[in-house]
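Sharing in case it's useful to others searching the archive later.

Someone asked me privately for the predicted structure of MFS transporter, DHA2 family, methylenomycin A resistance protein, so I'm posting the question and my answer publicly. Question first, with the sequence:
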Amino acid sequence: MVMPGMSPDPKPYALAGIALGYFMVLLDMTVLSVAEPDLAHALGGSVAGLQWAVTGYTVAFGALLLSAGAAADRFGAHRLFRGGVAVFGAGSLLCAAAQGLWTLVVLRAVLGAAAAACVPSSMALITRLYPDPARRGRAVAVWAAVSGAALAAGPIVGGLLVGLAGWRAVFLVNVPIAALTLALVSGNAVRCPAAPARRIDRTGQALACAALALGTDALIASGGRHWAHTAWSCGAAIAAGGLFALREARSTSPVLSGAVLRAPGMGAMLLAGAAVGFTLTGVLFVLPLLLQQHLGYSAVGTGLAFLPMTLPTAFNPLLTGRIVARVGPRGPVLAGLCLLTAGAAAMGAAVWTGAPYALLAAGLAAAGFGVSFALPALTTAVIALAPDGAAGAAGGLFNALRQLGATMGVAVLGAFVTVGPHRGTGRADHGVAGALLVAAAVCAAAAAIAAAGRRTPRDAAAPVLAPARR
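And my answer, the predicted structure tokens:
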């Protein structure tokens, strides 16, 4: 029975379309990893160019997530979601046709902006489509399970596509996915009312984007030993960050929620989310370069080599949900960070010593279980620690900092590697090993801070996939 004022009971294809759009956005974060060597060979460029091909996406995605939720409220979540999917499909087609690496970088930033439009609006659509809490919880479970599937599929799909048709295929695959998504969400059921009174601080958002992009540029330039470039970008990033802080202090609709940032224990959880993003995306950037350019793996072989890390993300979140529901999120967060530390250290040791693949696989498996323990538990912890009425803002900030961590992971760890057919050179292997050990140190520091921080409330032992309070 449909109550007055409520959306009609949606058909299953509406939820399928929303989940498929989310899958497309997340797949694009990992599918490019195994295409890096083929991309470098086809378009040329240095490690810095490849770093920007990855971080162009995550910089725009992470920075714009800060205001994307407010934009969904202001313009209507269904409009923002459909527009984001359409731009993502068209942008992917242009990426596949790119003739230069820096053209691709710009287009990847466009994809990141489109992704930022899709993610919070998809959650708002599910909330509107399923007003009944029990049905909504099941719908959110389907939506969230897609993230593990996308991560698991990314390297395999990327390897197969690159092996069959080259790097351009990893973008062409998005076009039919976007078209199918738009067809599935075209019905009247997928609709949310707009709130024109909802304010967005466009200047503050632009300054946040500038500060993040310039800071990333400074890190990438320092990795290439371009010190003048580094100094200029670092100074500009500090200036943009200062202007952003001044703007935030005076804004009536700040980009960052001060109440969320000041919540006891929140800082440690946000830092942990950034550390997970740093390690996961950094590993996905540096290891394919090692496996293909230095150890002679094919693109398909590289995708298969990542299975020990990606498979746990497809099934282990279900176990994590049960654990969090019973004991709260703190234990799984710490366990996940410790597993990530051990996994990155084992991968670094395997690369440094030239050990058989079995040791590398063990490290990848530990990292995969670490991610799948930490991220669902961190999501629950952030929502539980948020002040009343600020769960949505807390979730948006958490996801933005995950993308910031991913950006920093590629920028920092990428500084340790070289691009080129230097197969069998120990120097390159030691560079990748050093990068992996840095990732281990970052996760160890995050684990220590989380262990010393405030315990999350016992009522945080709620289902991981429960919808955020509004």
